[in-house]
Amino acid sequence: MTVRKAWIVAGAALAVGLSFVMLLVVGVFIVAGNLAGGVGGASKALAKGAVPAAYQGIVQKWGNLCPAINPALLAAQLYQESGFNPKAKSPAAAQGIAQFIPGTWATHGVDGDGDGDRDVWDPKDAIPSAASYDCKLASYVKDVPGDATKNMLASYNAGAYAVIKYGGVPPYKETQNYVKTITTLEASFAAPVSRVDPSKQAAGAIYYAQKKLGTPYLWGGEGTAADGGRFDCSGLTQAAYESVGITLPRVANDQWNAGAHPARDELLPGDLVFFSDDLDNSRAIRHVGIYVGGGYMIDAPRTGAVIRFDPIDTPDYFGATRVTEDGAKALPTTV
Prior knowledge:
single chain, alpha+beta, 6-stranded antiparallel β-sheet, 6 strands, elongated
């Protein structure tokens, strides 16, 4: 079927489709109100594919090294530091997947895989070293009042002495932001154990996306005048959430980390839905759309197509993210 014919067929159902979407828009507001104040904490297990498969077992094992950390928290730190890039190097000479500076590595690096060396560039050493260092910091501040994990993260950023001096997370804006960022990102790497609260901005994001139905796809498109108002998949989702005040990263595999991950049978309109050829690695995600209910999403599929309704239940369906404002704010600007 040609693109033109496909759009004519889609157009025949458009009135019904738009009515369906608008009902969903109203429904999302109702659900958001009814479920406000939702549920409690996240699981300590990793969400499906949250960590590249090569590191999944290491993060799960070493993330349970001490009570102050867990696998999702350790994953959040690694993502924040390097985006799981074992070759990452910062201008401050921080090295590897865990971004150790040489002096800290010399003192706290461990031989995680037992091969007789400590290699900052080898994730089998660097990830265990990150967990070990976290736990060492936690031991330094174990008698400080307050949340042990937050005190540990504050020690990582500001030093254990500052945490001891102030009797908890010190009143430094950078340190407080660091603690909030990592603990917020933790939810995007954890497998939820119960219902995930709906996003209050979801209806507005759907409303934006449905107004773009029929717009031609443009690789790299962000909907600007220079792009002729055209989008690619993540450009559309970014613009839809920008319209309700939430700034998402530009590419799909980073948008995955903008919130917690509801199961397929828990999807709500406004959730982002993701697709990948590697179902064990969120860094390999290649497509994203906005779920509208009934097993369908609005997406910008590919060159030669237009923004349209598409089914989500395909073999490459990876999972979903319920976008939150805090989750989006916590994402690093570069990974």
